[in-house]
Amino acid sequence: MKDLKAKIAELKKKFNSVSARVKDEKSLQEVRNTYLSRKRGELNLLFEEMNALKPEKKSQAGQMINSLKSYIQERLEKLKKEIAVKERPVRKIDLTLPGEKGYCGAPHPVVLFQQEIEEIFLSMGFSIEEGPEVETDYYNFEALNFPPHHPARDDWDTLYITDDLLLRTHTSPVQIRAMEKRKPPIRIIVPGRVYRRETSDPTHLPMFYQVEGLVVDEGITFANLKGTLERFIKTLFYEKIKIRFRPSFFPFTEPSAEVDIECIVCGGEDEKCRICGGSGWKEILGSGMVDPQVLKNVNIDPEKYSGFAFGLGVDRTAMFAYQIPDMRYFYENDLRFIRQFALK
Amino acid sequence: MRISLDWLKDYVKIDRDLSALISKLDMIGLLVEDWEERDSDVILEIETYANRPDTLGHLGIAREIAAVLGLNLKEQNWPLIEIEQETSDLIDVQIWDENLCARYCGIIVKNLKVGPSPDWLKKRIEAMGLNPINNVVDVTNYVLFSTAQPIHAFDLDKIAGNKIIVRKAGESKTLRSLEDKNIALSPEMLVIADEEKPVALAGVIGGEESAVFEKTQNIFIESAYFDPVSVRKTSKLTGIFTDASYRFERGADISFPPQGALMAASLLTQMGGEATKEIVDVFPKPRKNKTVILRHKRIFELIGLEIDEKFTYRTLSRLGFQVEIQQEGTWQVLVPHFRIDVEREADLIEEITRFYGYDKIPATFPPLRELEPSLDKNRKRVNKLRQLLFSLGFDEVLNFSFSDPEEEASFKTKRKPIEIRNPVSSKASILRTTLITGLLENILWNRNRGAEGIHIFEVGNIYFWEKESSREQARIALATTGLIGSTQWQKKSKETDFFHMKGTLESLMSDLRYEPFSFQEKDHAFFEKGHSLALLFKEEIVGYFGLLKKNLLDSYSLDDAVWAAELNLSMLFGKKPQSFQHVPVDRFPSITRDVSFIVNRSITYQEIKEVIERLSIPHLKTFDLYDRFSGASIPEDKVSLSLRFVYRNPQKTLLAEEVDSLQQKIINVLKKEFNFQLREGGTEVPSKVRSKKK
Ligand SMILES: [Zn+2]
């Protein structure tokens, strides 16, 4: 029995040294035959030796031999895998062949830009509100302080459906609808399509997108309007952009302001700049403090509450930001144009 | 408004250089849009606003400049050469409609020789971009561009009965214009008439018969105030828009007519005429100046900046307001007549802020007192849907809401279109009732420019009448035609087809968790018979898709097949999607079995699917069609289908024998139901995954 134990130990040692030298399938097979062959394999010889033992020792010896057997089997199995990996043929490939291209569709630039605008205002605590495009004269004009027959209406050349129904000329009617619906504080933006009776040319379209904004609360000031719009513009363009607020007129705000930003193309250096005409400024927003009459029209007390409103043309601003020379490109839907915005 | 710098200097001393002046003007809201040098003068193009008719003349602009520079306006002197005749002895002025004409002034200039203007006047007129005509016309234009007060000159000798009557046209039907055309009058229009007939359209244009011509000697000068709305209506009805009507419809200065008449008469007497004594001034109901209360603390409350009381006082005074201090912090402000825009405290605050400088106002952020709940869930859904479509290779387009009624009609949407009364073009005279027309335009555009595969979508509204009210419905439409992807060395592009569209819609519905959804074979006006399906969710049709009809494609000159889909997003988003829930992942391995068989073409996949589903085979997790082909090896009326079945028991590892017997059950039933012929899988052939053919 002692003999057998020693033999097993020696066999294991021998196996370890032999198997360490196995390099390929052939030498592996040799080792396997040496140890595991059913006829003359070393292990079988051990089993035969075991059979000669007394029955009470047999089972203990059997356990020892079996454990060596599974050790050898596992080891050989592992070697087999290692050799397989080593011997796998590696074909040379042409690494210079082009890579496989995927394809992804592209967003429309106006939608893309509108969403950029929306994201900025959402981050400032605004929520998004919508309203009808087919609007009444009351919401589009009268409630916004455009009396009937007032020349101010000429600046908003209108497409009419009936005497009373029209295609909204701005997103401002949603201001009125929002203020009718709920009490201040109100902090909304209104994106959407608006319409003008204009023939298409490089800078005019009969339909375009606008984003309107409205903030109404106690103690809202012109300074708040400036702070909000400056933050917005700096986020949309860049932090150091020059911004100018300039007095203007809108029937539904008082005081009113137009907002100009520095020409990002020429910086005012090019007298013939086709973006700014050499002035160095580009108008991008209309804004102002909500006119007290507009607040009264929706039963909000202008002595208690104040507010500001603003609006910007999405297409026009996108045109400026992406330096697109012709507004009509947006609605030609040439895929060679649109696909560029997959990169944005 | 064109403004001459030389002309401005008649009213105010300007010693700044041009760029400093322009930036001052910009700062107070008189935006200089353009400027040009002209001889020794500079012509500015200044943006003016609908509420500021006072800035439609050099005097008004000069007043603003004086205020911003802290200067006084120069005194103006208008001497007359008079004759010993009272104006009112020579002409009888009557206002019959005081509502439409609140004030009418006149003066007569006799013995004038009509001829060319002196050079200084010609230069002024030319600076306004006009051609000098004669001294009379040039003088009236000069007064208008100087002061914004329109002036009209009549040939006195052609005024019948020496009467000027301001009345509605009433029975009078026409007025002969200078171009020898008859202007049709409507009864409500305000006219200037003599004893017999209208001689001018009040505030708009004069008539031919009373017009000054080269032989005119005696002139009646009109300087009046007409009702803005009346002038605007007359202008719009007759289609005649003049420099005069432009100013009257915005609101003239009711205090100014005598001064206007005096200026014109003075200039004409300097050119040889002689004026009558005393201006006729018919002003039935003189108006008081408006008064507005200004509480100084409101400036801070609205603007967010303390402005010095002295500054406020000075600015308002320079602009022509009279300020009386009622009590500490509360002022009574008397508004000059030329400032028709100032009626309320807020209007005064704008004036003060404008001159103080918007740039001096701090930029602060409004306190966020409350956060509103997000109102727009649909925005998120639309975005998810867009992202999915991008990943599937669809490009986004946007089309105008307008549509061509003829084009729309061939689509037979059955929705009553909304017509535009004054469209820009007859081809854009209704609002779209489907998004597909736009997509076809886009396909045509891109086809003509060489695109081989066009896969596009648009999210937008359609518009239609529902009974008496207009409806707007959010939709998504998709169209696909031609090759998908570009051909590459190890990946070939393929032609799009019905199932590309179907799969897109399936992923779209699954991604938004609008499950379970189903399809139903249904004919639709857009699609070829037998090539369209309706998409249903919660028993309602949310949209259709299919192969567009040949005749529709023909009308866009499109030869290749186009598959399109249109879904009603308003309806879909109105329904609740399946709520999201985590599902435990498989702990035990699944077993896959493939089977291929040949069946009659007439048997639909749906039928086979339903039979399998009805069996409710335990542990059958999914099954799917992974190959379908017909060809040489298969009889004409048959088709080969390959299905893959996946089995799994969530509790334990399934045994191969168990699965085999379940699989055999399915095969047996399919054999019985559809009389199919087994190709691979099941007991007749050992199971293995058959490689994809084609
Ligand atoms: Zn520029």
Q: Can you walk through the features of this model?
A:
The complex is a heterodimer of chains A (344) and B (694). The longest helix of chain A is centred in the first third of the chain and has 33 residues, at 55-87. Chain A has a 7-stranded mixed beta sheet, with helices on both faces. Chain A has 12 helices and 9 strands. Chain A is 41% helix and 19% strand. Chain A has 2 domains: 2-87; 109-341, Bira Bifunctional Protein, Domain 2 (BirA Bifunctional Protein, domain 2), CATH 3.30.930.10. With 694 residues, chain B is of the alpha+beta class. Chain B has 20 helices and 33 strands. In chain B, 40% of the residues are buried. Chains A and B meet through helix 5, strand 1, strand 4, strand 5 and helix 8 of A and helix 7, helix 10, helix 12, helix 13 and strand 20 of B. The structure holds zinc ion. Zinc ion binds next to loops of chain A.
Question: What is this structure's SSE topology?
Answer:
The complex is a heterodimer of chains A (344) and B (694).
Chain A (H helix, E strand, L loop, with lengths): L1 H19 L4 H12 L5 H10 L3 H33 L21 H15 L3 E2 L5 E3 H4 L24 E3 L5 H9 L4 E10 L11 E11 L4 H15 L6 E8 L2 E10 L18 E10 L1 H6 L8 E8 H9 L6 H4 L2 H4 L6
Parallel strand pairs in A: 1-4
Antiparallel strand pairs in A: 2-3, 4-5, 5-9, 6-7, 7-8, 8-9
Helix pairs in contact in A: 1-4, 2-4, 3-4
Chain B lengths: L1 E3 H4 L9 H10 L4 E7 L2 E6 L11 H12 L12 E5 H4 L1 E4 L5 E10 L8 H9 L7 H13 L3 E5 L7 E6 L5 E3 L5 E3 L5 E4 L4 E4 L3 E2 L12 E8 L1 H11 L4 H6 L8 H14 L3 E4 L2 E3 L7 E6 H8 L5 H10 L3 E6 L2 E6 L9 H12 L20 H15 L3 E2 L5 E2 L1 H7 L18 E2 L4 H12 L5 E14 L2 E16 L9 E2 L2 H14 L5 E5 L5 E11 L2 E9 L1 H5 L8 E6 H5 L17 E10 L4 H11 L4 E10 L8 E10 L8 H19 L2 E4 L14
Helix pairs in contact in B: 5-6, 6-9, 11-12, 13-16, 19-20
Bound molecules: zinc ion.
The site of zinc ion has 7 residues of chain A, from loops.
